[in-house]
Amino acid sequence: MTKALAANGAHRIYIVGRREDVLRSAAESINPEIVIPLPGDVTCRESLLGIAKQVEAETGYINLLICNAGIMGPKPLKAAPGAPLPSLSEYRAHALETPMEEFTNVYAVNTTAIYYTTLAFLSLLDAGNNKNNMGADVGSQVITTSSIGGFSRLPGASFAYNSSKAAVTHMTKMLATSFVPYGIRCNVLAPGIFPSELAMGIIGALDPGKTGEMDKNIVPAGRAGREEDIAGAVLWMASRAGSYLNGSVVVVDGGRLGMLTSTY
């Protein structure tokens, strides 16, 4: 996302995360004149307010806020390929071994943090509207990263992850309605299977080929997502071309969701 925005006219991009070394490496690899690393914790209100204050002091406004934090969380017990189904008591025991805090922490990162990040940057988004540098038709926007997992009725990788992403999707729709009087749009990006630190376990289990090919019964496009797939979606949503979106969900999954038992 950052690469795409930097390559297509973004004046300044702030990237936020806990690991400063990762942020600095990303900024250096793209364009350190444009990409500014800001170490911070999106699960901490004071940290978010401090980051927003720093951005306000340096630029005074933002046009686009992308909330992209996410963790997977505890996984349900599954049978190994060819092995018998776990008994109900085994399934129950495995699940109850997980402390409740591990489950609810997924919501803290994947859902609650998005809500508070949006609140922390509202004034800067409003300032972006007042500056009107994107044009009246575009205006300020929040894009939240959900997942097709939020629509799947299968246990998948994590009950906590999938349900937290369902929460993000609906919460973003609520935010879109709430901010209509203020001229701030909110939309959801729901990716499918993309190579990432978070998704490597899932991708490995699907056994992709060396060039990323996948069984078309799993992903009709026949491959995992690529950088240009997510980049194209973000650029469309962020530009004049996507300015008629508000409260919308953009699914970028190569058709994967259509192969799952899901509610969309």
Automatic annotation (TrEMBL):
Q: Which UniProt keywords apply?
A: NADP, Oxidoreductase
Record-level Gene Ontology MF annotations? oxidoreductase activity
Q: Which family does it belong to?
A: Belongs to the short-chain dehydrogenases/reductases (SDR) family.
The organism's lineage is: Eukaryota, Fungi, Dikarya, Ascomycota, Pezizomycotina
Q: Which domain of life is it from?
A: Eukaryota
Protein's name according to its UniProt entry: 3-oxoacyl-reductase
